[in-house]
Model the fold of this input.
Amino acid sequence: MDKRVAILGAGQLAKYLVVAAKKLSIPVTVVAQSLNEPACFESVPVVAGTWTAELMLKVFQDHDVVTFENEWISDSLLSQVVAAGLIHKMAPSHASMKKVRTKWDQKKFFMEQKYPTAKAILGSESDFFQLDHVKDLFAQFP
Done:
């Protein structure tokens, strides 16, 4: 039996995922907020509309694997999926996604794990609202 896969998001990355899934004969459903997004034009089932807790629960209930094309999925929506006991269907995992929620979080994670990455300034978000502090931070770069 084929695994039923859903992709949360319908941008360019989702479009590439759909194209690759078709080559592997993997059935995919795209979950879009608008029918004008790139992946919606790839002749696959599309669930379109406002992302609500009800929609997320239905997507997770109706699919074996749920993946995402970006990190901007609301934690409040996912908390409903967690409460329903369906978060195990998410790939990559919810825990992994939380580690890379923003570019800032991604950079901090890479540096903490000692992964090769470009030098970056790590501070708190409030550090960047004080001009003198920003100048001090940027002085670290030759």
Summary: Residues 12-23 form the longest helix (12 residues).
